Amino acid sequence: MTRRGLLSLLAFALVWFLVLRYAIYGAAQFFMADAPGGLIVSFFNSTVINNLMSWQIPELAVFWVICLYLLPIFCVALTADQTASDRARGTLRLLHLRATRDGVFFGRFLGQMLILFMLILLALMTTLVLVLLRDSSLFIPALRLSFILLVNLLLVLLPYTALMAWVSSMASSARQATLYAVIIWIVCSIVTGWLSSQFPGLWGLDKVLPGAQVSGLLQLSGWNTLSLAYLPIIQTIVLLFLGRLMMQRSDW
Amino acid sequence: MNLLNCRDLVKKYGSTRALDGIDLTLEAGAPIALIGPNGAGKTTLFSILCGFLRPSGGEVEILGSKPGRSELHGRLAALPQDANLDPRFTIGHQLVLFARLQGLSAKQATAEAQRVLDQVELSKTFTMKPEALSHGMRKRVMFAQALMGNPELVLLDEPTAGLDPPNVKAMRTLISEAASQATFIISSHNLDELEKVCSSVIHLEKGKLKGVVSIDQSKSSGYLTLVMAELTATVEQIQQVLSAIKGVSGVSFNAPNRFVLDYDASNYPQIDLEVMQRISAMGWKYRQVVNGRTLEDQLYFE
């Protein structure tokens, strides 16, 4: 456990405490107070809100929405330095004398995914405690739903982590890797947006970037959410392929 | 099986050829020096052998495998130039990780990390972070990581660069002690140091192989090196006097004060006495008379 790791964990814990106390707890109270067809639904009148209102456990519904938008940002910051600073420092050379380039690249990627898995698990467990404090009879359905959310959130984060693995293999620091990711993101958004407007026949272009399935996910519930799992998996495979190519071809 | 085989090895950086058609075959044995001026291609050659760089052309085989292959893990070790340990973790933690990657169990890895640190007399640094060490200590720790798991071939890129004389001596002793267990290839600018440790020299210049020279041969008779304490006569006068000695076929001068005599060793084995007598008779003062030539004279002043 390094100082940087402890600080990241502390930052995550503090942010999560605020989210849990004010966003999830507060929003859940608000949702429960609103009867079907009540104020919130009539005000927003969207399929997303309707879908979330139908969840048996509002805490987890709010958790789901917040995580879908918050975790990718945290993920990009956390996973930016997969190989970058090690390359600049020459530590990768010492590792490469004992491990293949593939071993280093995929090992780091899987390590980051493991850390994210544990953080999501931790966040889910604290939310579960909040649910159980309100109504302990919801333990089994909450556990089942938590498992669905865990799988889905990991799927959401897969392409973001793969993107950072790729850009990290080109960069010499975490900051440079983040900068590369932002540039790639903006350029891809502009290019795909322009191509879509010019050639309406190219219908799949809006699915190129990580997180493209998020708006679709909010309209689904339960294991139905996995119907969109193909998108982050394909994105991850493509990004890991690009990262591996860079890792194999780069000079250390 | 050869230790190392390079055939027409080329590495280009843009239009610059850092290595330009290197053909080299080496056998396992006594330490080998790799020398050459800055930009000669020493670090590039080491980096290709370790798999850090990909050659632009030609073929390389090291211990029977292509560089970077998993078959070489644990068999090939290196002290790469400018490679540092991660400052966030303790030295022990990182050495144990390296040992684990080399296939040792957790218990064996800890013991191995402690063994190599003990070997370089830095066992106390196991729980310390790299930033707490001096430059010399860091070099020794880096040397320690190269000794892990008893490798067959160890590449040391500038192991004494930036070290003070006591640390240079300590590093030389460490290399000499470890040389019985593995073949060392050592790149350095310090020819005096290499001469003390190595038995042969690979000479690179501008990316080309200038030759492979035996240091033992340079120390053998046929040459005599005279180091003057002060030059009380002109260089030409001294050369004239030395050339007049029977058996001497040539005298070259290497500034500021070194003369190398080329002589017939088989017929005039006692020529060193004659040289000393002649110098004494002229009233000149000398500092050293050494059989053979220095590596520097052999490589650069032939």
Number of strands of chain B: 13
Task: Write down how many β-strands of chain A occur, each being a DSSP E stretch of 2 or more residues.
Answer: 0
CATH architecture grouping of the largest domain in chain B: 3-Layer(aba) Sandwich
Q: Total number of helical segments of chain A?
A: 11
Largest sheet of chain B: 6 strands, mixed
Residue share in β-strands of chain B:
25-35%
CATH superfamily of the largest domain in chain B: P-loop containing nucleotide triphosphate hydrolases
- Order of strands, widest sheet of chain B: 5-6-7-3-8-9
Series of secondary-structure elements of chain A, N-terminal to C-terminal = HHHHHHHHHHH
- The tally of structural domains of chain A comes to 1
Estimated helix fraction of chain B: 25-40%
What proportion strand of chain A? under 5%
Class by alpha and beta content of chain B: alpha/beta
Counting structural domains of chain B, the number is 2
Q: Determine the CATH topology of the largest domain in chain B.
A: Rossmann fold
Mean pLDDT of chain B: 89
Low-confidence blocks of residues of chain A: none
Low-confidence stretches of chain B: none
Largest interface: A-B, 19 and 26 residues
Biggest sheet details of chain A: none
Helix content of chain A: over 70%
